[in-house]
Amino acid sequence: MQARFLWALTPLLVATLASAADCDNATDQATMNQCAVQQNKAADKELNTLYQQITARLKGSPDSKKVLVGAQRAWIAFRDAECKFSASGVAGGSVYPLIYSNCLTDLTKARVETFKGYLKCPEGDMSCPVPAT
Predict the structure, then answer these.
(1) Is 9 exposed, middle or buried (0-12, 13-18, 19+ CB in 10 A)?
(2) Which of 65, 66, 94, 115 is most buried, with most CB under 10 Å away?
(3) 129 exposed, middle or buried (CB, 10 Å; 0-12, 13-18, 19+)?
(4) What positions does the domain Lysozyme inhibitor LprI-like N-terminal occupy (predicted)?
(5) pLDDT per residue over 105-118, tens digit each?
(6) pTM of this structure
(7) Which of 119, 126, 106, 105 is nearest to 52 (CA)?
């Protein structure tokens, strides 16, 4: 019974792998848009992982954690508004999702680097808001 179940899932796995491989050689707009969304999701996942690490380090500093939450909410609002503006020249066009998602990805990757910096602060660095471990 398990073998039948696994064989039944094989086409789904192959389709998923084929879809992922399409991003390397995407030639149509729909695929490029989909790939851009996937890249943004990956960057956002990394950002969320780092955010959780930072909030864990701030568990003994509720005021700092509150400031981080506010800063992150403000940053998300900025990122979304900036990317809407950045892509506004192609609003309504088929390339809009690509331009918008690429902008989100670029800004998210920059925020990821900022968060990585917070997590690497040397012991005693008074300018760093995240305590070293």
Answers:
(1) exposed
(2) 115
(3) middle
(4) 23-113
(5) 999 999 999 999 99
(6) 0.81
(7) 119
